[in-house]
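TODO from last week: model 3-hydroxyacyl-CoA dehydrogenase.
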Amino acid sequence: HTILTSNTSSLPITEIAKDVQRQDKFGGLHFFNPVPVMKLLEVIRISGTSDETFQTLLNFGKALGKTTVSCKDTPGFIVNRLLVPYLLEAARMIERGDATPEDIDTAMKLGAGYPMGPIELLDYVGLDTSKYIVDGWKKLYPNEPSFQASELLNKIVGEGKFGRKTGAGFYNYKK
């Protein structure tokens, strides 16, 4: 009766499950940070996931007080598939000199109603983490234009600036 699952925000669930003999008992979960605060849980179904296992994972999420959404095993699932290209385009806007980080963040907070701007979010998540995700997707999907990293992002990460966790990223957090 055991169900096996993995929590990931970007790794392919099918790849994680490749050596699992009981594919019918496997599915993916993506909890959002901070887990106690964030209400969403993505439930990812691979081709072998049984209806019973899938429903159990949905029920598990609901029992934890989460709102569950589901999708197939697509890069980034729902949220990150939409979010990562958006974040990368914000970095490319800075790279091209289209706008400053501050103006991009202000525009998205006040114009789109987002609680945090894309540059603030990149620094919060970690520029190294974002680059790792994009590099992995680019390797798996080399012809997908929305999975191309920003040169500026690569440069900042190369300088050891990962955002809030190192005290500097697009913004400087050192007082």
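Done. The chain has two domains: 4-72, 79-164.
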